[in-house]
Amino acid sequence: MTALTASLVLPLLGALAAVALPRRAAVAAALATTALTLAAVLWLLVEIGTGGTVRLVLGGWQPPLGIALAADGLGAAFLALTAAVMAGVALAARHEMAPAAAGPRAAFGFWPLMLLLWGALNAVFVSRDLFNLYVGIELLTLAAVALVAIGGKAEALAAAMRYMVFALAGSLLYLAGVVLAYGAHGTLDMDLLAARTPARPDGLALALMTAGLLAKTALFPFHVWLPPAHAGAPAPASALLSGLVPKASFLIVLRLWFEVMPDRAATGALMVLAALGAAAVIWGSIRALAQARLKLIVAYSTVAQLGYLFLVFPLAGGDGAAQPWAAGAWTGAMFQALSHGLAKAAMFLAAGLFMVAAGSDRLGALRGLARVMPMTAFAFALAAITLMGLPPSGGFTAKYLMMTAAFAAGQWIWALVMALGGLLAAAYLYRPVAALFARVAPTDPRPVARARQAVPLVLAGAAILLGILSAPPFDFLQIGRPEAAEEGL
Amino acid sequence: MSALTAYALTGAALVGLGFFGLLAARHLLRRVVAFNLIGSGLFLYFGAAGGRGAAPDPVPQALIITGIVVALAASALAVGLVVAQARASGRATLPGEEDAS
């Protein structure tokens, strides 16, 4: 319980310290906060692993009046992903967000925003109250938009503004759903809502909340804000935005459908969600094929990879009683979210190092960089393996579980989408990898220290390890798993 | 028509107006105003929903106040971005939407 409180409070305190302290002390405080929060999250993982879901009722006020927090296996897995990515980003940002490299404004703003983002993510992952979640995703959005704009260039500002319009519209749709749910049931606690007597506004409330969250998750066709925003931010910020931020709103969608209102899951609605996900996989991949800049390729790949997550809705569902494959699809989607988070953070951090070395992220400028930066190029290739879903990566485990479920349920169309998405990922990632490993000497690259190159390698390696050692995380995800994940929607 | 129904309908109308503004307006400042209009409409509706019982429900009031604070913070950041965007590019519209009204 202390660990849960610490992992929520520490990043917020660190953010305040990073604003108040002078430059050197602020960076030291931010790094210390990162280490402490990482330790708190690890401690929490041990607590959950031994004792099951950790619950915390704020101020001792029971719901419906108070707010309950609960860290189950799912929430804690995302806490762990966030902590890992944050640690990597903090190490990378020590150099890349130094005043000499990024300008004094970005160097000042990055650390508090990073820690605020962390606090908001952690709050969203464990909160059990719909309004508390609203505040959480608003805080998340504000920090994320500011991180996009931090560079101060005109195109980054325009990307941030476009992101802001989508995110605000999404927040309001979500809030409208929350208001309807409260009006009908007089509570916003997820567990109390799950035990409610169904009322007429439920369907509309669920639809509004889902639509708002989809805009924030950048699911096709709400994805147009994502590529310019993620490609326009500095590389460490892009790693956070692409690897972590969309997962928070996705997690809320998942909890709404599987835990709060599984009784409202009509087959048609599930099919719409999955069809949008499939469209995202195809369209995001095709757009990624057409990009000439590495960061845009990686950003469009995020659009595609987020699409897979939404295939979980029909695959974990279907008609009839308990289905043995349903839990597999649910866990598979979680593996996809976790391995994509690690791999995408590694890719953006690698892209940042390539930009330091070559001065640009155009594919032509990256030719032959593997000769001078073999570690970073290898990290990028490892991350690419995960995104393509090749064994033995975490991405392979994810697609294996989901594909098995698709065939077992007779919904082969989603398996086809996954296979096609994997092929397209191989195609769009081949271009940067081929450029990096081209047999030409790069023209006058700036040297990058080995210690900096190790950061993306560790993150990409973790994404691979998620596939090799998939049993412990698989079991961990089952802690406190909702019943609907087992039986299908 | 009771007062509560009037509040709820006014709230709903504000939400509709706001969404129209958010989609139709090109000028970014108008969009920020539209966002606030939707927020206010939702809060008004929420307040009306909380007043239905014999004794008014205090929870919506607490949530509305929190929501207003959140909306204020979001508006502040949005206005700051609009100003920065206008300084950097010379216009207060998104690129590709220059036919400002």
Question: What's the topology here?
Answer:
The complex is a heterodimer of chains A (489) and B (101).
Chain A: H1 2-20, H2 23-51, E1 54-57, E2 68-71, H3 73-96, H4 99-102, H5 104-126, H6 130-149, H7 154-185, H8 190-194, H9 202-217, H10 226-232, H11 235-243, H12 245-260, H13 267-289, H14 294-309, H15 312-315, H16 326-358, H17 374-388, H18 394-408, H19 412-436, H20 450-468, H21 471-477, H22 483-487
Antiparallel strand pairs in A: 1-2
Helix pairs in contact in A: 1-2, 1-5, 2-3, 2-5, 3-5, 3-11, 3-16, 3-20, 5-6, 5-12, 6-7, 6-12, 7-9, 7-10, 9-12, 10-11, 10-14, 11-16, 13-14, 13-19, 14-16, 14-19, 16-17, 16-18, 16-20, 17-19, 17-20, 18-19, 18-20
Chain B: H1 3-24, H2 28-50, H3 58-89
Report on the structure:
The complex is a heterodimer of chains A (489) and B (101). Chain A is mostly helical and 489 residues long. Chain A has a domain at 286-489. Helices cover 75% and strands 2% of the residues of chain A. In chain A, helix 2 (23-51) runs parallel beside helix 5 (104-126), helix 13 (267-289) packs antiparallel against helix 14 (294-309) and helix 17 packs antiparallel against helix 19 (412-436). Chain A is globular, with a radius of gyration of 21 Å. Chain B is mainly α and 101 residues long. Chain B has one domain (3-89): Orthogonal Bundle (Helix Hairpins). Helices cover 76% and strands 0% of the residues of chain B. In chain B, helix 1 runs antiparallel to helix 2 (28-50) and helix 2 (28-50) packs antiparallel against helix 3 (58-89). The longest helix of chain B has 32 residues, at 58-89. Chain B is elongated, with a radius of gyration of 17 Å. Chains A and B meet through helix 6 and helix 7 of A and helix 1, helix 2 and helix 3 of B.
